[in-house]
Design brief:
2 strands, single chain, mainly alpha, Phosphatidylinositol 3-kinase, Chain A
Length: 232
């Protein structure tokens, strides 16, 4: 007769609980350095870079700088998901208080980066920004229905009235400087992507759908991108 195989040792509920606690303790605490999912002003306090539009979060600056230089012709950028493991790694690096200089490292061949992955980092930042780029306080005034009501009247000149309304709103004292700088950085970048739409297949319409998907402000963002030179 064969010997009976010993049953695998089962962990007691106490040791399982201790192991779970130890695993939790091993997870890094980014609460004091996080730049994703925190108010814009806090993200800037923790890490900022002076762009041509003013101070912006370093993560946003580094991502957009890389895409503007290396990724404008990337087919379906902002539509294709990318490598989730690498994207999470980049997000965790910035949240830990460190910086990745994507363009510098890529050009020096220290690291190779995929524009599709970097674009998803931008999306993660924007999608998790409390209050959004247009702010919670002024969001109602940016709604397409509010804009349409503010510029109603004769059809002639309606586009110019809409541009004037948005320009006044964005340059008002109620709209925070940090949001204005970030908003201009983002819409300028998206226009650069759209200019290559014959190659990357990402028109303004496609970009607005992918970047601001299901947003109540989609039409407003479309206007901001198309007429940014007149608005900002």
């Amino acid at each position: 007769m064969g010997q009976k195989q010993a049953k695998p040792e089962q962990k007691s509920s106490v040791s399982a609980t201790v192991e779970n606690v130890q695993n939790e303790e091993q997870k890094p605490d980014y609460s004091m350095t996080m730049v994703f999912g925190v108010p814009l002003i806090l993200s800037l306090e923790r890490s900022q870079t002076n762009s041509q539009f003013g101070a912006v979060p370093t993560v946003l600056y580094e991502c957009i700088l890389f895409i503007n230089t290396k990724g404008l012709e990337e087919e379906c950028i902002y539509r294709i998901p990318g490598d989730r493991t690498k994207i999470d790694s980049y997000i965790n690096t910035f949240n830990s208080g460190k910086t990745i200089q994507f363009l510098e490292e890529h050009e020096s061949k220290t690291q190779r980066y995929d524009p599709l992955n970097i674009a998803r980092v931008v999306l993660h930042f924007l999608n998790n920004l409390p209050g959004g780029l247009l702010t919670e306080e002024l969001g109602q005034k940016f709604l397409p229905s509010t804009v349409a009501n503010a510029v109603k009247g004769e059809k002639d000149g309606k586009r110019q009235r809409k541009i004037a309304y948005l320009r006044e709103l964005i340059h008002s004292g109620d709209f925070p400087q940090q949001n204005r700088s970030c908003l201009q950085l983002v819409v300028n970048h998206l226009m650069q992507v759209a200019k290559k739409s014959s190659i990357n297949q990402m028109s303004v319409k496609n970009l607005v759908f992918c970047v601001f998907h299901m947003s109540k402000w989609s039409k407003t963002f479309s206007t901001l991108i198309k007429y940014q030179d007149e608005i900002f």
